[in-house]
Amino acid sequence: MHLQTYSQWRETCIALHMVAQMMGKVKLECLEPQPEWGHVLLEPVPDGFSTGFVPHGAGGFEIRLRLDEPQVQAVATTGEEASFPLEDGTSVARYYERFTLLLEAVGHPVPLYPVPQEMFTQTPFYALAEPLAFDGGAAWNYFEQCLFAQGALLDFSAGFRGKKMQPSLFWGTLDLTCVLFSGKPCPYAGEGGIVERVALDEQFVEFGFWPGDEKADDPAFFVMAYPFLEGVMPEVDVPGAYYDPSSAEYFLKLEDVLRADDPHAAVVRFCHDAFVNIAANQRWERFDWLTRPLLV
Predict the structure, then answer these.
(1) Cβ-contact 282, 180 below 8 angstroms
(2) How would residue 273 be classed by pLDDT, with cut points 50, 70 and 90?
(3) pTM for the full model?
């Protein structure tokens, strides 16, 4: 695992992000809704990311975004399998065509809403005809970063006693994130669409890793709260960590994580201290119980 800024692998990242969106939209169509979009998340697996088993019709299927040998694979309960490679010079439109054929080949054609969500473009997949570079080494390095993040986030959140989302890929913004909930209802009262209204209806703190985007080049760990934080927040005693009032989030750049003597411990400490600060600021009820050490 090494540092790579978003601009260093931008087109490869876009290709992965668009394919991940297609996978997530399959779950969106096939599965019953869960709170805070819990039904559409993608799971880290040893070679990439998976939809997990998706029930559909009399059986079901799984789709994997493999990054060891970059490709998209699907397998159905009938035994039907299909795949297509992620290749240099392929457009999103071509990936979408192949993705549609993949679903048909395993006997589970699923109509998808073809517009990317929470991205820099709202041009439908089928109209994104510009060829994209694809670097398999950069894609695998990103996956190694996600595996590192998953390990740290799992260790941090393991003892939390309340409702939580285990570290998963949120394909809207391509962040690997876990979420801890206080249990307090908090319906979203601001302006926004269905994404915000569903995702923001309960008090929570979100902890994640994000590879950067068009506006921010540096991959980073982040901690954000809902309801959104206001004003000045206490700092976190991890080198490089800071609170950004403009986005109401704590950040720790991957560059600073990799400089630490123990990078894993630095991420766990960053998440823990930010969580304590946020819970105190927002007066989480039952915080002592939710974080009481487990008897194991």
Answers:
(1) no
(2) very high
(3) 0.95
